Structures are given as structure tokens and as C-alpha cells.
Amino acid sequence: MIATLLCGLALGVCSAQQAPRLAETSNNTGPSASGNPSRKANRTLTPDDGMGVISAALDSKVPRYSEHDCSHLVHAIYERAGFPYAYADSDDLYAGVEGFQRVTRPQPGDLIVWHGHAGIVVRPSRHVFFSFKSAGPGIDDYHAPYWIGRGQPRFYRYVKNDPCPGCNPASARLRQGPDAR
User: Fold this and answer.
1) Whole-number mean pLDDT of the chain?
2) CB-based burial of residue 130 (10 Å sphere; 0-12 exposed, 13-18 middle, 19+ buried)?
3) CB-based burial label for 145 (10 Å; 0-12, 13-18, 19+)
4) Which of 2-11, 34-43, 72-81, 146-155 is predicted least confidently?
5) Is 70 exceeded by the pLDDT of residue 42?
6) In this structure, are residues 129 and 110 in contact, taking their beta carbons and an 8 Å threshold?
7) What is the pTM of this model?
8) Were 123 and a residue from 33, 59, 92, 128 both cysteine, which residue would form a disulfide, CB within 3.0 to 4.6 Å?
9) pLDDT value at position 133?
């Protein structure tokens, strides 16, 4: 089942790369050092990067996750895929944290977050995501009645040009407030 899912994702990524994509969110920034307004393009995960995140999540060769909660699982997967961020619980992720940009149209590898639960989008066209469920890590349909009952999810995409200063996976601390950088 996982092999079939990964094959379907690979086909979706190939077709997505052939069609031009429009930006979904604003990347406006304040004035540049010269005082002129500028636009800084946030480099978010590409579909290929997203496939790397999904591969890290579904790789059966890696040791199973020692943490039995969704936010630690998601954090470990992003780190394994090479996209570190300061650990945040699901409620903080839902509110939005540095290093992620909210998007309206998810792509594979994006975060899907509700109050109290987080996962990783695997196949948005089929509403499939990967997370820690009652029986352990697995996939589910985020349009299933249980997830609809949790409310509207939010989707976030990792920002690659955020230097994530102070990120220290071993400390698992939260960056809080504007002075935390």
C-alpha cells in the first residue's frame, strides 16, 4: 500500500513540475537596507523537497519513533528529512510558528494542523496525511468524519531560507515572542 502511494505521489510531483505554479501567499517584506520597499521571495519546500519529507516519514528502514505524540513525530520527520525547526506543540503550530508559511493549497510534505493535532500531508488530491494515530504512526483521510469533527485544519509549508537560529533539536525548546531570535 505504501509503495502504491509513493508511486502515485511521484507521478503527481512530475506533473506538478511541468505546470507553472502561481504563488499562494504574499512574500512582501519591509523596506530594504537602502530604504526602498522590496520583495523577498521566501523559498518554501518544493514538491521534490516535500517528497523527501514523506520519504522520511514512510521509510521502514529507520527506527520507529520513540515519542508517542503527533508534534514530536512531525518534528522528528522534518529533522530526518533535513528541514530542522525549533520544536513546537500542535497548538503553537496551529497558531503559526517561525519557519513555516501558511498556505491555502497544500502540497505533499506540508504540515496539516488542528488544535491539538499535527501531521504531514501525503497526497492532497486524496486528502491523505501521515501522523501519530491511536495505533501508532499511519496515514488517514483528513476529510474523514473524525477529522472534520475536529474543525478546519490549517496548512503550513516549511520556509527554507529561515536560518532557524538557536534551533537545537536536542533541547526541544520553544522560541517564544519576538525577542527569542
Assistant:
1) 74
2) buried
3) exposed
4) 2-11
5) no
6) no
7) 0.68
8) 128
9) 86
DSSP state of 151: -
Q: How far apart are CA 109 and CA 56, in angstroms?
A: 10
Contact 86, 72 (CB under 8 A): no
Distance CA(91)–CA(84), nearest Å, equals 19
Task: Locate the domains of the chain by residue range.
Answer: 43-162
DSSP secondary structure letters along 16-62: HHHS-----S--EEEE-TTSSEEE----BPPHHHHHHHHHHHH-TTS
Instruction: Spell out a b/e string for 68-95, using b for 16 or more CB atoms within 10 Å of the CB, else e.
Output: eebbbbbbbbbebbebbbbbbbbebbbe
CATH code linked to domain 43-162: 3.90.1720.10
* DSSP secondary structure, 49-109, as one string: HHHHHHHHHH-TTSPPPS--SHHHHHHHHHHHTT-------HHHHHH--TTEEEESS--TT
**50-92 pLDDT, tens digit each:** 999 999 888 765 555 555 789 999 999 999 999 999 999 999 9
Task: Name the residue among 87, 69, 74, 49 with its Cα closest to residue 166.
Answer: 87
